[in-house]
Amino acid sequence: MLRFENVGLRYGMGPEVVGDLNFSVAPQSFQFLTGPSGAGKTTLMRLMLLSLRPTRGTIRVFGQDASALTKDDLTTLRRRIGAVFQDFRLLDHLTTYENVALPLRAMGREELAYRAEVVELLRWVGLGDRMNASPPVLSGGEKQRAAIARALIVRPELLLADEPTGNVDPGLARRLLRLFVELHRLGTAVVIATHDLQLMDQFGFARRLVVGDGKLTIYDGLPS
Amino acid sequence: MNEPIVERILAVESEPTFETSAPLIPRDSVAGRALVVVIAIMTFLACLTAGAALLVADASQAWRSDVLRDATIQVKPRTGDDVESIVAKAVAIATQAHEVDSAHALSKAESEKLLEPWLGAGFDLSELPVPRLILVRLRGQGSQNLSTLRKALASAVPQADLDDHRVWASRLGALADAVVILAAALFALMIAAMGTAIGFATRGAMAGNREIIEVLHLVGASNAFIAREFQAHFRRLGLRGAMIGGLAAIAFFATASLLSFWWAHSPGGDEIAAMFGSFTLGSSGYIALAVVCAAVTLLTGLLSRTIVMRHLQALQ
Fold this sequence. Notes:
The structure holds 2 protein chains of 2 kinds.
Chain A: E1 2-10, E2 16-25, E3 30-34, H1 41-48, E4 56-61, E5 64-65, H2 71-78, E6 81-84, H3 96-106, H4 111-124, H5 140-152, E7 158-162, H6 170-185, E8 189-193, H7 197-202, E9 207-212, E10 215-219
Parallel strand pairs in A: 3-8, 3-9, 6-7, 7-8
Antiparallel strand pairs in A: 1-2, 1-4, 4-5, 9-10
Chain B: H1 3-14, H2 30-69, E1 70-75, H3 83-96, E2 100-105, H4 108-114, H5 116-119, E3 132-138, H6 147-156, E4 160-163, H7 166-208, H8 210-218, H9 223-263, H10 269-276, H11 283-315
Antiparallel strand pairs in B: 1-3, 1-4, 2-3
Helix pairs in contact in B: 2-7, 2-9, 2-11, 3-6, 7-11, 9-11
């Protein structure tokens, strides 16, 4: 599904931020990406999302070499990937409903066809009464849930979530994590960047990708 | 029994109501409002130029057909000539000509009165060989060849000189054409300036909405989808600006048409009327202004789409 071979990235003439990355994300797998702050978790997430180009190595996504993708290919691939960003990236002038529906709208689907689906998901993440609210009036936790809902609405084959539980209370964090686990059971490969060790311990079956000093170490999860 | 119905009613009442499919590019921004003002002013000026060109073109057509429908025979008497009989002979020849509808000689007093603006009233002209004029009204639109009449006059009344006003009409026509060409050039310059302003505004909007474009790309929006959104945004701004400018121009011409009735009886009113006619745009003129507004709206949308597509190609 996603394969990194000797991937490295440097900004300009600076040192490599991440280097010698060799790993793959298998279909229907579940993994945490962790490491200290500033270790390169977000950079690695952006490389997986193809919003950054590596300065060396090869990234293969859904069997295709990312460096050979055309613009149209990239658009098609991104529709198969759901992303939750650390800074949410919600559009402030749209309502919560419109933000969550955005990927479906971008695919050219009719509003009537997806309306019920979006409403149901918003209710599920506890934003049923905040559908008309715009992001500036949402709390951090509400924004996070809206961002998660936007990533899930397309039922992605690969879900990349950067600190998806960073702004919610432990109860809601567990609930959201259970949602990710449920998605994983339904066939989605999930990569969650976090440095919440307690949370990771609750999902011991998950593989751990640990970034430190720009290198990656992989620890397989316990058998579930 | 009634419970399911109550539940259904409650379900309907609890169905959320919300605004959907809002524009992805924020509607109200300072740059957007500034662009509306620029487009409104440019559209107003473009409509004024187009309207003025139409007025001059219409007036010129009227002048030419007026001038060409008439001809003038000037009789310059020689010493000892019986002026009245020569004039009568010229009138008779002109009246018999196939191309002529009617011919009417100005009396001696009327001819002398024509010189009053230059020589003053009360000047004794009895000793001067004042030429006599015969006004000839031609049949139809006055495009006939008057060579037969000219030959007939030259052989029978050598003192008579026929002027078919063609030289004067062609000069008037050249002047009017020059005014129309100038107006068309000004119109083209305004459209070019407007296009440049739209280009700057689009690039500004792209920079200002960089975050939106990035998010749209990340959620799987194609370049064509993003360009369509920008096109719709700028078409809306263009429509608003074009409507304001176009309606202002229509109000201007309607007011000018009303005022021209008052000017018609004021000093200088005749000259203005001669230049612009009655200053009234016909229905075709107003349709032309509406076409200008529609073209501005389309231009705004298409131009922004082209710029956005080019920018997105470079971005990726």
